[in-house]
Design brief:
Layout (H helix, E strand, L loop, with lengths): L4 E8 L2 E2 L2 H10 L8 E8 L2 E4 L13 E4 L2 E5 L9 H12 L4 E3 L4 H10 L3 E6 L3 H13 L3 E6 L1 H14 L5 H19 L4 E3 L4 H5 L11 H10 L1 H13 L4 E3 L5 H8 L3 H4 L7 H11 L1 H4 L6 H4 L2 H11 L6 H13 L2
Helix pairs in contact: 2-10, 3-12, 5-6, 5-16, 6-9, 15-16
Amino acid sequence: MKGLELTGWIELDGARLTRPDIEAILCERPGDILRFGGEFFLSGNGCRARDHFGVIQGNCPKGTLSCENGITGEIVPEGPDLPLEEAIITAVGLRSDEGVTALSGGVDSTLVAHLAGRECLAVGLAGSHDLRQAKHAADMLNLSCIYVEITSKEIADVLPLVIGTIPRKDPVNTGIALTQYFITRWAGEHGYHRILTGQAADEIFGGYSRYLDTKTLEEDLSRDFAGLEQQAVRDQSIAALHGTYLSMPYLDMRVVRAARKIPAAEKVQGTRRKVPLRMVAERHIGPSLAWYEKKAMQYGSGVAKELSSLARKNGYKTSVQDYIDHISRVEHGH
């Protein structure tokens, strides 16, 4: 591809590719692009390509090679089927040559942080659950971690920008995006482009509390997995503000394949969620961290509570949504 531009990283048959590797393949064996794995948006010579699950954003459909005449092929990484533990270790290993790990202290991010062995980053308001739990996890596993305290003023200052950036402007998405904003801002300011995260584990392994009571677990997991594409748009749009991107080991083809072989009933058992993931994690981070039940990002960081407080202070005592809609209208004309 002439004028090759790459966001993210690419692998082929389990091996990381350098830029010269990619250029050589595209010149000599262009058909191999349809077997590319990794997290990438690749463009050049009138063509564009995105990774299979669309982790990295770009102006073509996820998992496709698109040229001037439209979509010319589907990108499906090949490779051996691996047991879940080996799949996770491989997925994290391929992403751990650079970057920082976002750590909240829950099993998803703590396992990634431990396997990656990179510097970690935790954000939250002073005294928040996530800052406390991240410190506990980092201390237990001897991980290097930076703790960034968010202030109420900072949230108020960046709220219009965050609302204007994300596609779905509701309290849940706004709270998550605000937290991601401060994670990605710190990373960008300190020279990191890649941020390893534990995202997608809830949708793949059955982590939401609503799964405990559902009669249609398999269907719910499929629906929520499909929703990850919209989440990626939200999160990567925020990350792009700071020249960064989120890397998601659990959304690796090997991990997804291994997880799909596990029956839904084994993922949620009684009052226990994400059972297969926690069983793997036990062997790496110990049972106390592996089985710890953590709050969702927007609550654990304290951001959701602060968003509600801002709404009340600005005269929206009963509806955070009305406050978000007001900002969207005033700042962005929506």
